[in-house]
Design goal:
The protein has about 190 residues and is mainly beta. The chain has one helix and 13 strands.
Length: about 190
């Protein structure tokens, strides 16, 4: 048996061989000498290139001038083609990077959430249906005044939908999430 299938078989049989969590002794919770840990956020140095970053507490930073525009046909029969255009209106070039998303049918971008109009029912991504995707990583450069376009198709049942879209990945090697305005689509 080649080494890779043998390793896979060993990992799948791991719990049944007595090496799983059932074989480990349970440790009682430690309640003595407990103290909370307070973490202060790292300050952004003044006068550095990070001055061009705009952020809010708890959000990832995005360079100023970077915008996203999600487009889709208003009415469509069959698959819904989506396009997310990330535009760099800043003075310096940016490097965009995105990986495939296991919850998004292995798409790189745009990442989306589809809601049925009139309700808050999420019809995509379907909860509990993640995939195991190849760990491809796409990188693109957008110079000053340039744009990068990401496209994908969605398979939706007939109905009225609001589609929220965003770019999630990295901008100049820093984690970033860039949201676009939602679009309304009628699928016939």
């Amino acid at each position: 048996m080649p080494p890779r299938p043998a390793l896979l078989v060993a990992l799948l049989l791991w719990p049944t061989l007595g090496f799983g969590a059932a074989a480990l002794p349970e440790l009682p919770p430690q309640t003595e000498n407990w103290q909370p840990i307070f973490v202060q956020p790292a300050p952004i140095p003044v006068g550095s290139s990070s001055d061009a970053l705009r952020s809010s507490p708890g959000a990832v930073a995005v360079p100023a001038g970077l915008t996203a525009l999600l487009t889709a046909p208003r009415s469509v029969a069959g698959r819904v083609p989506l396009s997310l255009k990330v535009t760099n209106a800043g003075n310096a070039a940016v490097q965009l990077g995105a990986a495939r998303d296991n919850d998004q049918n292995c798409a790189v971008a745009p990442l989306v959430r589809v809601l049925r109009v009139g309700t808050r029912e999420v019809v995509y991504p379907v909860a509990g249906e993640p995939r195991l995707c190849a760990q491809d990583f796409r990188t693109d450069a957008a110079g000053a005044g340039e744009a990068v376009t990401y496209t994908r198709d969605l398979e939706l049942l007939p109905g009225e939908y609001m589609i929220e879209g965003w770019f999630a990945g990295s901008v100049n090697a820093a984690p970033a999430k860039l949201s676009a305005q939602p679009v309304r689509v009628t699928v016939r």
